[in-house]
Design goal:
The chain has 240 residues and is α+β, with helices and mostly antiparallel strands. It has helices at residues 2-21, 32-50, 57-79, 81-88, 102-108, 112-121, 188-196, and strands spanning 92-96, 99-100, 130-135, 141-145, 168-172, 175-176, 206-211, 216-221, 228-231. The strands form two sheets. A five-stranded antiparallel sheet has the order 6-5-7-8-9, with helices on one face. Strands 2-1-3-4 form a four-stranded antiparallel sheet.
Length: 240
Amino acid sequence: MLTVLIRSVVLVCVAILALRMMGKRQIGQLQPFELVIAIMIADLAATPMESLDIPLWRGILPTAALIILHQTFSLLSMKSQRLRSFFSGTPTVVIRKGKIDPKALEKLCFNLNDLLEELRTSGVLSPTEVGTAIMETSGKLSVFPTSRKRSLTPADMGMEPGYEGIPLTLILDGQLEKNNLPLCGKDETWLMSQIKKLDISSFQDVLLCYLDTDGLMTVHRYQSDKPQRLQALSAEEVTW
């Protein structure tokens, strides 16, 4: 029993490591050759796990070979447009100016029911509301509404909104994010002085604390229903 457990742990770790080396794409975003390799890795890991008569190296070695093959394909795809098209295919326009292209659907083996379902998933009820719809190489449908149907933007109103970036996490689960503090040019003493303004005496009392790119600090406490906010930095002091 212990042998089976150890073999299972080793093979699962190898499979996870192999998939991590393939990048951070979700299953639905894998290119065709990546999906094939992922399926083969799962099968190779399962075979030695099922039978103790099969040595571990017969699952680990082919998995390593597949990862090398994947890295080679990825490198070739980066260097050559033709090979990229061969391995991954090319995007296909299925709707242009509200008109469905039946030949493109036939080429993709994609029926109208599937198309309408994808449009509804994207928040579009009718193909006539679509300016352009493109079937990506990952199998995902990118839908762009017509200019009359898209959401109003600041540019449409002649506005110039300020910079808006990723919030900077400073405290997570009561633990100080020490690598992020230098990004805002501050230290632990400064952060402690800020949270004390909210009657918080310890980092351990904070569930989540982050800084927006407008300098506004938001603090979520463990025992508080509502987050607390304060202006910790001016817009000019934001550097990340």
